[in-house]
């Protein structure tokens, strides 16, 4: 992996080890919150977050007949200045988590603490104040920018809602500064989105995300719609801005290589739940959850010897419907290690018993009853 500007987690003061848990009862959540914090205070604490979209039937009298369990009890922490990557197959609930963190969707249950304050319970001015500090960069720079607005109006739009950040007379100057910060010519302020390339448009989206000086940016597939060469430029820009403004990122993507490159820690989601979470080295070099192992076994390996050695794990079967997920472990219908216990008991996201107290990178949180290491990248 190229090491361009990526932070060294171990070298960062107040950032050492992570303890995130998918505890499902209040007592378990309390235990997590009471656990010694080794990374300093998290800026965001997500606890048992749930989003069920109701499934209804009937035209005049709508009756709820079920629910799409898009996010079903997800917990994690985000620390100041770090990047938490979130990966997982299409439909596993990544964008729904992003929208819940942004309060663009209302949580069915669970909490999102921003500096200790549960933002899912806020409204009015208190919510507006928090929203200023949590911004989003969207996937598709072609559709997320209004084609009829100039770049100046797009980037300056957040100032209409938060005029205290840039009074009217200062806005043009502020927008030009933002254009400069993201590597665009400040003279482009009166241009329209169609006059820019895809990479430049994503820079505009990033400038808009930065306008209110946020502390957290939720990035939902920010480079997935871009060419590979442009992806690298945008990622490098995001890393530079993170260092400059001490930003914390939640970085959602399909591409495991990009996520590894930019992330300090990585969470792997499957069907509305977090399957495994740890530092990038723990997840990529020492995965213990069969789903993570299968995902990683499909990542292209440049070294031909490693390619020879590694075992490709082909998952069979489709991802089950989130409206009717399997009992116990949600991955069991596709897992080659599934046993009776997997259908009966939901595995909690915790350091597996076999690794508790051991100083091995495998001792990170994994929601599997039979978690074990497997060399999926042919490193041996
Ligand atoms: N507004 C909605 N109403 C009903 N179901 C929804 C709604 N939004 C999302 N879903 C469902 O919730 C599940 C999770 O969707 P989500 O968009 O969070 O997945 P994702 O991981 O972001 O997928 P992708 O990688 O394709 O972007 C999917 O089954 C989706 O169909
Ligand atoms: S709990 Fe069982 S089904 Fe789930 S990942 Fe582990 S072994 Fe597979
Ligand atoms: Mg999505």
Describe it.
By secondary structure, the protein is of the alpha/beta class. The protein has one domain (9-55, 68-366): Rossmann fold (3-Layer(aba) Sandwich). Helix content is 29%, strand content 20%. It contains twelve helices and eleven strands. A seven-stranded mixed beta sheet has the order 6-7-8-3-9-10-11, with helices on both faces. β1 and β2 (63-79) form a beta hairpin. The model is unreliable at 1-37 (pLDDT under 50). The structure holds adenosine-5'-triphosphate, iron/sulfur cluster (SF4) and magnesium ion (MG). Magnesium ion binds at residues 94-95, 220. Iron/sulfur cluster binds next to loops.
Strand content: 15-25%
User: What do the pLDDT scores average to?
Assistant: 87
* Spans where pLDDT lies below 50 across 5 or more residues: 1-37
> SSE order in H/E notation?
HEEEHEEHEHHHEHEHEEHHHHE
Bound molecules: adenosine-5'-triphosphate, iron/sulfur cluster, magnesium ion
Number of domains: 1
- Number of H/I helices: 12
Lateral arrangement of strands in the main beta sheet: 6-7-8-3-9-10-11
End-to-end C-alpha gap: 17 Å
**Mass-distribution shape:** globular
What is the CATH topology?
Rossmann fold
Which structural category do the helix and sheet elements fall into?
alpha/beta
CATH architecture: 3-Layer(aba) Sandwich
